[in-house]
Amino acid sequence: MVNVQGSLRKPPAADAAPSVIPCARLLASEFAARAAQHDRDASFPFENFTQLADAGLLALTVSAALGGGGANASEAARVINIIGKADPSTALVLSMHYIQHLVMARSARWPGRLSRKLARETVEGVSLINALRVEPDLGSPSRGGLPATTARKTETGWRLSGRKIYSTGAPILKWYAVWAKTDEPDVRVGLFLVPAGLPGTRIVETWDHLGLRASGSHDVVFDDVVFPLDHEIDVRKPDEWGIPDFTQATIHAIFVAAIYDGIARAARDWLVEFLKSRVPSNLGASLATLPRAQEIVGRIEARLAVNARLIESFAGDFDDGVELSASESNIIKLTVTNNAVAVVEDALSLTSNHGLTRANPLERHYRDVLCGRVHTPQDDATRLNAGRLALGI
Known about the structure:
By secondary structure, this protein is α+β, with helices and mostly antiparallel strands. It has helices at 5-8, 16-41, 46-54, 73-86, 88-106, 112-124, 246-277, 291-319, 326-349, 353-356, 361-370, 379-391, and strands spanning 129-132, 150-153, 158-167, 175-182, 189-195, 201-204, 218-227, 232-236. The protein folds into three domains: 5-127, Butyryl-Coa Dehydrogenase, subunit A, domain 1 (Orthogonal Bundle), CATH 1.10.540; 132-240, Butyryl-CoA Dehydrogenase, subunit A, domain 2 (Beta Barrel); 246-391, Butyryl-CoA Dehydrogenase, subunit A, domain 3, CATH 1.20.140.10.
């Protein structure tokens, strides 16, 4: 276990960021050693988050003024990419947590008292937050519509009822940012901060997925759950949500891209070792000597080079305050994730049955990377929006 609390929990210096990367790589080597078993069992990697907390990496995107790492989107994306290469389920939970703290730091709508409280808890221990948005009937709110989950205002607090699906990190979350509507005559919709574990809250272990099996993305059910009135984060009239939260949408696209690129890099590394060590008797040399293998590996390298440039430059522009568009951020996610899928498929084309046997990690990488195609924002919505913008419709 690596502990770099001292280097992370102070105001950032010019040389602060590099210390984070070796720490992430050392932890990633341990996470990678456990990833296959967690995938097979669909068990949640609690120990990974204990180690991340001990190393100060859970608080990486918490403001330095509040004791965190003060990392920007570029630094956080590098860490997510490293962890995603080792265990993408862990990286997914971590990225959602990072997003919330970056949004807290930049959003005037987050109540300062609550954001400071969550920052302090994250600096001090294993305390994670994620937004719970998707529902059985609504699907992803990015496609429009009001949630069925309802917050009813009473004299003693909000009372919340509803069901959220695909709640990534559910087994370990301490806080939920719940997307819900009010029962007021003039309905409002938005986010409410709900502590995990309150009476009436239960986790239904529904997550039995093709990929990212250790992410604990179960259902969370709220049955008349009472929480304080001042835990209203950002609740508006429905038509005021026509323009999405740009900060959250952009960072989400960067971090999701970084996860799936990490998976592709893990597949590339395994493939290179396989080609160099596999010596068929009829060839008398390693598969790496074949021109076909060299050409396909070169194609993989080209896709990964494009991914690295896209993630690095876009995250850097975001950090530098360059004016960006939500459409462009979604296109970055689309391009990187599709490149990542193509990388793993290319690797499979060179490995025959070896690539699809469960004894080898390429099979797991393939299942994990396919999740990029259904991860919000989805490709069809991205292309449709880009087309409408180009046509002025």
